[in-house]
Design a protein that fits this description.
Shape: elongated
Radius of gyration: 19 Å
Structural class: alpha+beta
Strand content: 25-35%
Helix content: 10-25%
Number of strands: 13
Distance between the termini: 28 Å
Strand order of the largest sheet: 2-6-7-3
């Protein structure tokens, strides 16, 4: 078992890009619900057993270099498959009358809550992980026809890079239907961000 307390870098870094050309890349496949964790025990596809224990404010990104065996020239790299994210832009909402802002925010919250979709709000943007088919989510948003709201879909990794570790846990750790048990790491509270799910704020789905 190899203890990983810090990342060595990322395959996007020029130094690791260069090393990777002459090395064997051994993927450590990370599921969506595992990616937000900072503590994890898992074996790579090549059979390297890793005990990952990162600082609390860190989480795994696709391409993170976790271990380099100089003797065998094997590099263990995290391969994270995050689903796409529904991005709801509320920019410009603050220019409306307060009563209009309240109405739109209530309607949006009610609409997302009815679907039991977890969500994270940061600034004037709401992020919702794909919990059903993308076409279904797009259809739901069209049906509601929320005013002053723009929506798009973005890659999970792109969004994860914009959020802190706590927000990533809130967004991704409960979005997958498997496994069917509760992860303590996904239970986050407060700090001005709200996570709406089937059981009200601050409860995620597993």
């Amino acid at each position: 078992m190899i203890l990983v307390e810090e990342k060595l870098g990322n395959l996007h870094d020029s130094v690791w890009q260069e090393r990777a050309q002459a090395a064997t890349i051994d993927p450590l496949v990370i599921e969506q619900w595992e990616a937000p964790k900072n503590r994890l025990r898992k074996a790579s596809e090549g059979g390297v057993e890793l005990a990952i224990s990162l600082p609390r404010d860190q989480h795994l990104h696709d391409g993170d270099v976790l271990y380099h065996d100089a003797q065998t020239n094997v590099i263990v790299v995290a391969r994270v498959a995050l689903k796409e994210v529904l991005v709801i832009e509320l920019e410009g909402l603050d220019e409306l009358a307060p009563v209009e802002i309240l109405r739109i925010a209530f309607e949006l919250g009610h609409g997302l809550g009815n679907q039991h979709w977890p969500a994270v709000i940061k600034g004037s943007t709401v992020y919702v992980p794909l919990s059903v088919d993308q076409k279904v989510m797009a259809s739901v948003m069209r049906t509601h026809a929320f005013e002053h709201v723009k929506t798009r879909f973005a890659p999970g990794e792109e969004i994860a890079a914009k959020l802190d570790a706590r927000e990533v846990r809130m967004l991704f750790a409960g979005a997958d239907a498997t496994p069917h048990h509760h992860h303590p790491d996904t239970h986050e509270h407060g700090h001005g961000h709200h996570h709406h799910g089937a059981h009200g704020p601050d409860h995620s789905h597993a």
